[in-house]
């Protein structure tokens, strides 16, 4: 990933428990505010999604895109854009590492939109996306 934004959070769960929530795409509309619809288009040998269609609605931004996923056990998942109406590229990853008290989750994201946007504004938008996603993931994993 070229220019990217990154943030981390510690979640009180094992890497396997955190990755199970990340991998459960069908449940995203229940706990992520922006994802309204999900369709898993392909699965790998381990049963995890390799390609997913997501319908996003974040107020001013509404987009449907397809992402391709690569999994490294319960250590990391990365994705790249296959197609989108509004995005030129979207590359991201969740890296999970066991730490005292749970799992440190590091989310890295690089987005390039088709409309011109200042780099500073783009990075701020990436930061908002990352912070919301990490907070939502933490709540989903830690709430029984």
UniProtKB/TrEMBL annotation:
Signal peptide: none annotated. It comes from the Bacteria. SUPFAM superfamilies: Bet v1-like. Gene3D superfamilies: 3.30.530.20. Pfam families: Polyketide_cyc2. InterPro entries: Polyketide_cyclase/dehydratase, START-like_dom_sf. PANTHER family: COENZYME Q-BINDING PROTEIN COQ10 START DOMAIN-CONTAINING PROTEIN, CONSERVED PROTEIN TB16.3. This is Cyclase. It comes from Streptomyces tateyamensis.
């Amino acid at each position: 990933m070229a220019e990217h934004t990154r943030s981390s959070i510690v979640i009180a769960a094992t890497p396997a428990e955190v990755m199970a929530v990340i991998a459960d795409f069908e449940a995203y509309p229940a706990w992520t505010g922006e994802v309204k619809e999900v369709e898993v288009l392909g699965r790998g040998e381990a049963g995890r999604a390799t390609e997913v269609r997501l319908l996003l609605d974040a107020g001013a931004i509404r987009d449907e895109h397809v992402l391709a996923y690569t999994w490294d056990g319960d250590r990391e998942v990365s994705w790249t854009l296959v197609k989108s109406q509004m995005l030129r590229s979207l590359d991201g990853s969740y890296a999970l590492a066991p730490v005292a008290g749970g799992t440190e989750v590091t989310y890295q994201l690089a987005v390039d939109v088709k409309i011109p946007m200042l780099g500073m504004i783009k990075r701020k938008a990436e930061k908002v996306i990352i912070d919301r996603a990490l907070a939502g993931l933490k709540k989903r994993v830690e709430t029984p």
